[in-house]
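Morning!

As promised:
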Amino acid sequence: MEEDIKPDRKINIKGLVCPYTFVKAKLAVEDMEIGQVIEILLDYEEASRSIPKSMEDHGQKVLKIEKINDTDWVLVIRKEKE
Amino acid sequence: MDFTEDQLQRYSRHIILPEVGGKGQRKLLAAKVFIVGAGGLGCPVGYYLTAAGVGTLGIIDNDSVELSNLQRQIAHSTKTIGMHKIDSAKATFEALNPDVSVIGIKERISKDNILDLIKGYDIVVDGSDNFPTRYLVNDACVMAKKPLVSGAILKFEGHVTTIVPGEGHCYRCLFEEMPPPGLVPSCQEAGVIGAIPGVVGSLQAIEVFKLILGKGDVLKNTLLIYDALKTTFRRIKVPKNPNCPVCGDNPTIRELLDYDAGYCAVR
């Protein structure tokens, strides 16, 4: 299941707000190969919704959106498209 | 190349676009664009290319800033009247974005210098205000196989077309010969409404972005005509002319001509 996916890359964008949350996430995805998976740690609530939406719009696959504690979220995204 | 934190902020609205992204922004930063003229069109073209982080801008002009320019030439100011247009524009662009290297050339473009001047650049933008220069730039770009984004303005009308040598039309496919001197009035004679160069120059800047990014469709084989009084844009098909004297199958113009013959520049 998705729980078992081991990310190829992890980034921590805690402290960043939109649009830099997505800017950082997008640049990281650009540097990956298709099929690779990234785990994104963030603490800006709006980005927990906007990053998955924008990634889907750009043709990437959102595998997981999880609130892990009071302040932080983890997103897991697989690169499907250059 | 990694972006600095300042660059991430400066170009964030580009980077989040699917058509640009970090890869496209790096292409913009690596691009070299040559602008003919620092007047009505050259000002907004240079301004937006600078803002977008187009890495190297060459710009040529031989005039100084006059008060009558300021109604439309937005890189200059009341404080730079009398200054060379190149110095005035360079100061404006460098203040906007220190990422951009602005190479100003205080000369008149001619058949003797144009090929050397455009040699190191990826794209040429024509913002000139006269037919001899327009034909010179067209012929040189066809010969040097440089993409050319051509713009023209007069009164309430603007024209834009993008010439990709070897792929589409050129300016002579559209208008084979220059009009006779005096037939088409100049801006000095006929006037030009203030924001028209902003519309046309912005369209030219976008054409340059698309050429650099390899995205979208440029105005290849097409002339776009903006009528500001009617607020209409018309697209005119311009097929490549196989008998074109410069880009046709058997060109008769094989070297640059004396374009000024018979023309006197109104100064």
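Chain A has one domain: 2-78.

Hope this helps with the figure draft.
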